[in-house]
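Input structure tokens:
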């Protein structure tokens, strides 16, 4: 069993590596559970959670903010530095990335249909 913690991830959108700040996040989706107590028993309801990828784009001369804002139905690969890879399908940006010209960064978020671990 490896004890190497994930330190960063590379993100690809339709096979094109995105220039991203370290610290991107992956939510694989699934369910959120709302728990409640009745007498001496705990019950819950489930609501579907959307698979998401979030991070900050590093804006360079090659970064096309308009193309990223227009992304719909793309495939995202989230590849960690310690090996695991995740493939997310049916992804779309949730909002246009807003560039901070002082830092050269633009937050981006993709909402997806599905997430699977790639072996």
């Amino acid at each position: 069993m490896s004890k190497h913690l994930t330190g960063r991830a590379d993100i690809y959108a339709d096979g094109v590596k995105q220039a991203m700040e370290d610290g991107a996040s992956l939510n694989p989706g699934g369910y959120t559970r709302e728990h409640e107590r009745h007498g001496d028993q705990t019950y819950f309801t489930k609501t579907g959670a959307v698979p998401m990828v979030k991070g900050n784009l590093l804006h360079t001369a090659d970064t096309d903010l308009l193309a990223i804002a227009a992304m719909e139905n793309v495939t995202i690969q989230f590849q960690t530095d310690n090996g695991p890879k995740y493939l997310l399908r049916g992804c779309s940006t949730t909002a246009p990335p807003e560039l901070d010209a002082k830092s050269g960064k633009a937050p981006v978020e993709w909402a997806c249909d599905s997430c699977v671990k790639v072996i």
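Residues 72 and 92 are 4 Å apart (CA to CA). The domain at 9-118 is CATH 2.40.30.200 (Elongation Factor Tu (Ef-tu); domain 3).
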